[in-house]
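ok trying this again, last paste got cut off
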Amino acid sequence: MMGLTFINALVFGVQGNTLRYLGSDTPLNQFMAGAAAGSIQCVICCPMELAKTRMQLQGTGEYKSKSKNYKNSLDCLVKIHRKEGLRGINKGMVTTFFRETPSFGFYFLTYDYLTRYLHCEINDSYIIPKLLFAGGMSGIVSWLSTYPIDVIKSRLQADGIGGVNNYNGILDCVRKSYQVEGWRVFTRGLTSTLLRAFPVNAATFATVTLFLMYMRSENTIKECDAGPAIQQPSSM
């Protein structure tokens, strides 16, 4: 909850500004702008997911203990920093970067394509369900594109909690995970992730898009009062 506010603000801000910098609204530029947003937000996303992973595993399974080490997510990050420094709270940064960069590229590319295909116009009476569908499908495509990397990232961030490190890096984690559990290990948890991704991203994209539409329409009204009107864009 603490991280999502900053992540979404950063992602949509970077994506919008990068797209304006690139000049033309082409599919390639949509992908590049999304990839840029994904790579930059790793700075917040990686420590946030590290704390989430450690908090979820605390007191369960092989990490079970009588007392809990962390009171909350912030306390978790503080204690990791004290023990392992900046390298500790950025554990899994490389895999997070490899996951987020292409993932957000496909995220924004899919949304742009679907809103154009569905003809999402500001005066369309069905615009809300169309935006919800486009946003939900964008989330699904985004996760499908890089999910195996997420599995490795989560395993690396969980490694060492019990005092023993099982992996010596990304490739070692991939090799050992495959040897023990086969290729299915790289899709573990995919179903629940996709079930979460659709409603979450549907709500996120629809909210952001409708808010921007509202703000643009307000600006258009003001400019009509002051002088020549600026024509509303025909698509998202």
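PB: full thing came through this time. Helices lie at 2-22, 27-40, 42-57, 73-89, 93-117, 127-158, 170-181, 190-226.
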